Automatic annotation (TrEMBL):
InterPro entries documented for this protein: ARM-like, ARM-type_fold
Protein name per UniProt: HEAT repeat protein
Lineage: superkingdom: Bacteria
Species this protein is from: Streptosporangium brasiliense
Length: 183
């Protein structure tokens, strides 16, 4: 693991998150949540360094921290760089989820481009992000990308895109059973 260069508390939380090999693991996300709660520049700097890490696990952790930390103006360039240069599909998925959480329209070109990705998990991330960043009224290019994803051969991608279209255009959404709509 790369040395992050932060305080012992930040380093410890990062090490804890990296030890949990499950991307959706409870221990990993507890550590990430604690880093989000810090909401400080030290945590941002550590996350940004992770985004340049040697391993996909480091880069994905950095992205997952940036996605809900705040610092939108500082995080977007890092995430957009990764969106254009990253090869790992799980890192790209995390980038797209982070874009969705940051809710900034400036991510739209990156998300539209990744909506054409060969991997369905990446397209799923794009379908999640688009309704969150298209703005109001929705950007026409974003809507067109979401409409393409609604016809995706992967059912999960298509379903999420159709939900996003309904939410973005003020349409009716069938019963979602009170579920939290967050991947």
């Amino acid at each position: 693991m790369a040395t992050i260069g932060g305080s012992a508390a930040v380093e410890s939380l990062i090490e804890t998150a990296l030890r949990d090999q499950d991307h959706d693991g409870t221990i990993r996300w507890h550590a990430i949540t604690m880093l989000h709660a810090r909401g400080d520049l030290e945590t941002f700097t550590a996350a940004r360094r992770l985004c340049a890490g040697d391993s996909a696990a480091e880069r994905m952790l950095g992205v997952d921290i940036l996605g809900r930390l705040g610092f939108v103006d500082r995080s977007l360039p890092v995430l957009r760089f990764l969106a254009a240069s990253e090869d790992d599909r799980m890192v790209l998925y995390s980038v797209l989820i982070a874009f969705g959480h940051l809710r900034d329209r400036r991510a739209l070109p990156s998300v539209i481009a990744l909506g054409e990705h060969v991997d369905p998990r990446v397209r799923y991330g794009a379908a999640y992000a688009l309704p969150n960043i298209m703005g109001s009224p929705p950007d026409p290019m974003g809507l067109a990308a979401l409409q393409r994803l609604a016809k995706d051969p992967d059912d999960d991608v298509a379903d999420w895109a159709r939900l996003g279209l309904a939410l973005s255009t003020g349409g009716e959404v069938d019963d979602v059973g009170g579920q939290i709509l967050d991947p």
